[in-house]
Amino acid sequence: MADYLIAPSILAADFARLGEEIESVLDAGADVIHFDVMDNHYVPNLTIGPMVCSALRHYGVTAPIDVHLMVNPVDDLIKMFADAGATYITFHPEASVHVDRSVQLIKDLGCRPGLVLNPFSSVDAVKWAMDCIDILLVMSVNPGYGGQKFIPRTYEKLRQAKALIDESGRDIRLEVDGGINLENIGSVAHAGADMFVAGSAIFGAADYTDVINQMRKELLSVTN
Ligand code: DX5
Ligand code: ZN
Fold first, then answer.
1. pLDDT tens across 64-73, in order?
2. Can you tell me the distance from the alpha carbon of 205 to that of 148, in angstroms, rounded to the nearest whole number?
3. What are phi and psi of 142, to 5 degrees?
4. Is the CB–ligand 1 distance for residue 192 below 6 Å?
């Protein structure tokens, strides 16, 4: 079976109890914490910044933190999030004038870089980056809000992205973000995804362990 990572998006957590929420979701079996950064400029919403990431590290969170930058520009925040303890840093290529430089900056700062494809962005947009990135994140909703409906065209995009990753021969994660739930996690895995962001499906559940176990059960039955 493929090695799958479940990454709850803290956008759907109770921000007033963020440290506890993250502890609970990690105890429940989550692999990675997905940290959505929105600037009310690249996307029409405003969330959390590097101080919150740093506070979580001081609180004792040692799990990987997957920082998803939905900001423009990106370079200053890349530096701040690297200082704040980010593990992965992904950004949207159209938000950086020099995408290669921003990717190199993430690597030079000791973090793992990734690029993000919006629903209308073609897989070709990242073709020349495959030697340098560790994650390719395919958005299955328009970035900006949690709780949106999964866009079905994403399946074909995931298949194309997976082919590009296989062709590269590199160990690149194929992450999917937006509207992931118990009904579709198996089919997005079948299409090639191996890292699953889920906000409302996890934090909206009464029992985090139960929903993560059910997700793993769905993933167990996937054959590629
Ligand atoms: C959307 C964010 C997602 C979002 C996922 O812009 O990047 O990470 O929080 O939330 P759900 O799983 O509720 O769609
Ligand atoms: Zn995200």
1. 999 999 999 9
2. 16
3. -75, 135
4. no
Give catalytic residues, as residue numbers. Answer: 36, 177
Domain containing residue 214: CATH number: 3.20.20.70
The parent domain of residue 207 ranges over 5-220
Identify the CA nearest to 12 among candidates 1, 25, 29. 25
> In total, how many domains does the chain have?
1
CA of residue 120 to ligand 1 center, whole Å? 17
Residue 118: CB within 6 Å of ligand 1? Answer: no
Please give the model's pTM, rounded to 2 decimal places.
0.98
Q: 126-145: string of b/e by CB count within 10 Å (b at 16+)?
A: beebbebbbbbbbbbbebbe
Cα gap 91→73, rounded to integer Å: 10
